[in-house]
Amino acid sequence: MEIIKVNELLSAAWLAAILPILVASIPWRFSFLYGPILSVAKRGKTLRSSNSQKFTIPQRFFLHFYVVGVVWTTFLLAMTWFYGYAYHKMVPVGSDSLHFSTVANHLTGGSHMHKSQTSVGEHGYRVWRSVFLLMLMEIQVLRRLYESIYVFNYSPSARMHICGYLTGVVFYTAAPLSLCSVCAPEVFNFAIHHVAEFIDKGWDKMLIRGPISEIDWLIYVQPLTALEWLQWIGAAIFIWGWIHQRRCHAILGSLRKQKEQSDKYVIPYGDWFRFVSSPHYLAEIVIYGGLVFASGGSDLTIWLLFGFVVANLTFAAAETHKWYIEKFTKYPTERCAIIPFVY
């Protein structure tokens, strides 16, 4: 029986999510999808100004996105890292002395069924590239979890649509999986095989043997040094967006504290707010653009993940920009919605 490829399923899912947003974004609002997509995208201040708040939940449930994201990304990172370690022990990164299927079958207890023509060296590099991408994603979801608890003080009246909530939960499940989709099947088989082996034979047969103090931790990070310049430039782009998003979230968080005292919305200033109305969305796009760059740009699934982020946040930013203009008569005219000097 032909195994369904995880990356193909994810690609189809991202494409199915992107298309309705693109159709809903047709100019002049002729799109029949505009209303439904808008009702799902609205939250907080933009939803409060709406006449209907049916099927909504508290916006503070944003926290659930990042709990899911941290738990799932940590699991995928750990499993992929251990798989990469075992792979590297058999065949160091860059070696082509064996075929990928031979190594994968050994590591997964013979459960690997892909008929790949990829060399072991090339596939080993892809595995460690996935580890690197998941490390970056872990940094992102950990900060977002921290901000949801300590930075954003959501008003009790702030709401979000239940479909928007479900979209967020699905996103933070599918996004980390997309970053390691090229090796996800064998990683899961590897995990299942070693759990079964542990239950059957005990600790001595596990990947890590002996006391923790005797483990050579350098072996676990050494393959990362074999990554190419694309990964490190992508990481630099990621960190650039990450820093600016943190700053913009801090600005928005401080405004929410001020609103508690005066019960009035104010115009945010500082950092990328000089250029756009939703700089935290712009920073998110930069962050995922960094992930695309770090992936090497050859993975369609990650490109489609990036496409969804761009489409979704651009649509939401347009509505936020519209709200600001309607709310404040002296709103800075030089600000665009999300792309400086363009849109």
Set down the secondary structure blueprint.
Elements: H1 6-24, H2 34-41, H3 45-48, E1 56-58, H4 62-90, H5 100-107, H6 120-150, E2 159-161, H7 162-179, H8 184-201, H9 218-221, H10 229-262, H11 279-294, H12 300-327
Antiparallel strand pairs: 1-2
Main location: membrane
Pathway: Protein modification; protein glycosylation
Pfam families: Steroid_dh (PF02544)
- In percent, how much strand structure appears in the residues? under 5%
The number of distinct helices, counting runs of at least 4 residues, comes to: 12
Unreliable stretches (pLDDT < 50, length at least 5) are 96-103, 111-117
Number of strands: 2
Main sheet: strand order: 1-2
Overall residue-averaged pLDDT value: 82
Helix content: 55-70%
The SSE string, one letter per element, is: HHHEHHHEHHHHHH
**Terminal Cα separation, in Å?**
49 Å
Radius of gyration: 23 Å
What structural class should be given to the helix and strand makeup?
mainly alpha
Q: What about the largest sheet?
A: 2 strands, antiparallel
Shape: elongated
Transmembrane segments: 12-40, 61-83
Protein name: 3-oxo-5-alpha-steroid 4-dehydrogenase C-terminal domain-containing protein
GO biological process, one term: polyprenol catabolic process
Keywords: Membrane, Transmembrane, Transmembrane helix
Protein architecture, described:
The chain is an all-alpha fold and 343 residues long. It has helices at residues 6-24, 34-41, 45-48, 62-90, 100-107, 120-150, 162-179, 184-201, 218-221, 229-262, 279-294, 300-327, and strands at 56-58, 159-161. Strands 1-2 form a two-stranded antiparallel ribbon. α4 (62-90) packs antiparallel against α6. The longest helix is centred in the last third of the chain and has 34 residues, at 229-262. Mean pLDDT is 82; it is low at 96-103 and 111-117. Pfam families: Steroid_dh. This is 3-oxo-5-alpha-steroid 4-dehydrogenase C-terminal domain-containing protein. Pathway: Protein modification; protein glycosylation. The chain crosses the membrane at residues 12-40, 61-83.
